[in-house]
Protein backbone atom coordinates (compact mmCIF):
# COMPACT_ATOMS: atom_id res chain seq x y z
CA UNK A 1 0.00 0.00 0.00
CA UNK A 2 1.25 3.43 -0.91
CA UNK A 3 -0.29 6.46 0.78
CA UNK A 4 0.14 10.14 -0.03
CA UNK A 5 -1.53 13.05 1.73
CA UNK A 6 -1.16 16.69 0.68
CA UNK A 7 -2.69 19.47 2.78
CA UNK A 8 -2.91 23.16 1.89
CA UNK A 9 -3.20 22.36 -1.81
CA UNK A 10 -5.38 25.04 -3.40
CA UNK A 11 -7.59 23.21 -5.93
CA UNK A 12 -10.03 25.84 -7.17
CA UNK A 13 -13.08 25.77 -9.44
CA UNK A 14 -11.92 26.00 -13.05
CA UNK A 15 -8.65 24.15 -12.40
CA UNK A 16 -7.57 20.69 -13.51
CA UNK A 17 -5.50 18.29 -11.41
CA UNK A 18 -3.30 15.73 -13.19
CA UNK A 19 -2.56 12.62 -11.13
CA UNK A 20 -0.07 9.99 -12.24
CA UNK A 21 0.42 6.67 -10.45
CA UNK A 22 1.60 3.10 -11.02
CA UNK A 23 -0.88 0.35 -10.18
CA UNK A 24 0.45 -2.69 -8.31
CA UNK A 25 0.42 -5.96 -10.28
CA UNK A 26 -1.81 -7.57 -7.61
CA UNK A 27 -4.09 -4.55 -7.09
CA UNK A 28 -7.55 -4.92 -5.54
CA UNK A 29 -8.36 -1.17 -5.39
CA UNK A 30 -7.01 2.33 -4.89
CA UNK A 31 -8.58 5.71 -4.19
CA UNK A 32 -8.04 9.38 -4.94
CA UNK A 33 -9.69 11.76 -2.45
CA UNK A 34 -10.23 15.51 -2.72
CA UNK A 35 -11.86 17.66 -0.06
CA UNK A 36 -11.14 19.47 3.20
CA UNK A 37 -10.14 16.48 5.38
CA UNK A 38 -10.42 12.69 5.54
CA UNK A 39 -13.93 13.05 7.01
CA UNK A 40 -14.98 15.78 4.57
CA UNK A 41 -14.42 14.61 0.98
CA UNK A 42 -15.97 16.26 -2.05
CA UNK A 43 -14.71 13.46 -4.31
CA UNK A 44 -13.80 9.89 -3.40
CA UNK A 45 -12.69 8.24 -6.67
CA UNK A 46 -12.26 4.50 -6.07
CA UNK A 47 -11.40 2.10 -8.93
CA UNK A 48 -12.03 -1.44 -7.69
CA UNK A 49 -10.40 -4.39 -9.46
CA UNK A 50 -11.87 -6.84 -6.96
CA UNK A 51 -12.86 -5.23 -3.65
CA UNK A 52 -15.92 -4.62 -1.48
CA UNK A 53 -18.05 -6.91 -3.67
CA UNK A 54 -17.23 -4.98 -6.85
CA UNK A 55 -15.19 -6.16 -9.82
CA UNK A 56 -13.71 -3.81 -12.45
CA UNK A 57 -15.92 -0.95 -11.27
CA UNK A 58 -15.22 2.71 -10.50
CA UNK A 59 -17.07 3.90 -7.39
CA UNK A 60 -17.41 7.63 -6.66
CA UNK A 61 -18.79 9.12 -3.47
CA UNK A 62 -18.57 12.07 -1.10
CA UNK A 63 -18.26 12.28 2.67
CA UNK A 64 -19.56 15.01 4.97
CA UNK A 65 -18.94 15.02 8.70
CA UNK A 66 -17.66 11.45 8.45
CA UNK A 67 -20.87 10.18 6.81
CA UNK A 68 -20.71 8.72 3.31
CA UNK A 69 -23.21 9.83 0.67
CA UNK A 70 -24.80 7.72 -2.07
CA UNK A 71 -22.35 5.79 -4.22
CA UNK A 72 -22.17 6.32 -7.97
CA UNK A 73 -20.91 3.30 -9.95
CA UNK A 74 -19.34 3.43 -13.40
CA UNK A 75 -18.99 0.38 -15.65
CA UNK A 76 -16.18 1.96 -17.71
CA UNK A 77 -12.92 0.55 -16.32
CA UNK A 78 -9.75 1.41 -18.29
CA UNK A 79 -7.29 0.58 -15.50
CA UNK A 80 -4.87 -2.37 -15.75
CA UNK A 81 -2.98 -3.92 -12.85
CA UNK A 82 0.76 -3.40 -13.24
CA UNK A 83 0.43 -0.31 -15.45
CA UNK A 84 1.05 3.41 -14.93
CA UNK A 85 -1.91 5.72 -15.53
CA UNK A 86 -2.84 9.40 -15.65
CA UNK A 87 -6.22 10.90 -14.78
CA UNK A 88 -7.24 14.53 -15.17
CA UNK A 89 -9.72 15.83 -12.57
CA UNK A 90 -11.43 19.09 -13.49
CA UNK A 91 -13.13 20.96 -10.66
CA UNK A 92 -16.22 22.77 -11.91
CA UNK A 93 -18.44 24.71 -9.54
CA UNK A 94 -21.18 22.06 -9.73
CA UNK A 95 -19.23 18.89 -10.56
CA UNK A 96 -15.95 17.06 -10.92
CA UNK A 97 -15.06 15.62 -14.31
CA UNK A 98 -12.51 12.81 -14.26
CA UNK A 99 -10.91 12.12 -17.63
CA UNK A 100 -9.86 8.48 -17.60
CA UNK A 101 -6.80 6.98 -19.33
CA UNK A 102 -8.95 5.81 -22.28
CA UNK A 103 -10.50 9.26 -22.80
CA UNK A 104 -13.86 8.50 -21.20
CA UNK A 105 -15.09 11.05 -18.66
CA UNK A 106 -16.76 10.31 -15.32
CA UNK A 107 -18.82 13.21 -13.93
CA UNK A 108 -19.58 13.38 -10.21
CA UNK A 109 -21.59 16.18 -8.55
CA UNK A 110 -19.81 18.67 -6.29
CA UNK A 111 -22.16 17.90 -3.39
CA UNK A 112 -20.27 20.24 -1.05
CA UNK A 113 -20.59 23.10 -3.54
CA UNK A 114 -17.33 24.73 -2.44
CA UNK A 115 -15.09 26.72 -4.81
CA UNK A 116 -11.83 25.46 -3.29
CA UNK A 117 -10.53 22.26 -1.73
CA UNK A 118 -7.17 21.95 0.01
CA UNK A 119 -6.89 18.24 0.85
CA UNK A 120 -5.59 15.52 -1.50
CA UNK A 121 -5.18 11.91 -0.41
CA UNK A 122 -4.34 8.80 -2.38
CA UNK A 123 -4.03 5.28 -1.04
CA UNK A 124 -4.50 1.64 -1.89
CA UNK A 125 -2.72 -0.59 -4.36
CA UNK A 126 -1.04 2.09 -6.46
CA UNK A 127 2.22 3.98 -6.09
CA UNK A 128 1.84 7.74 -6.37
CA UNK A 129 4.13 9.30 -9.00
CA UNK A 130 3.07 12.95 -9.40
CA UNK A 131 0.37 15.57 -9.03
CA UNK A 132 0.04 18.87 -10.86
CA UNK A 133 -2.68 21.53 -10.68
CA UNK A 134 -3.24 23.93 -13.58
UniProtKB/TrEMBL annotation:
Keyword ATP-binding attributed: no
Gene Ontology, cellular component aspect: extracellular space
Keyword Isomerase included in the entry's annotation: no
The entry's keywords: Lectin
Signal peptide feature range: none
SUPFAM superfamilies: Concanavalin A-like lectins/glucanases
Molecular function in Gene Ontology: carbohydrate binding; laminin binding
Domain (Galectin) ranges: 3-134
InterPro entries: ConA-like_dom_sf (IPR013320), Galectin-like (IPR044156), Galectin_CRD (IPR001079)
Pfam families: Gal-bind_lectin
PANTHER family in the record: GALECTIN (PTHR11346), GALECTIN-1 (PTHR11346:SF97)
Identification of the protein by name: Galectin
Taxonomy of the source species: Eukaryota, Metazoa, Chordata, Craniata, Vertebrata
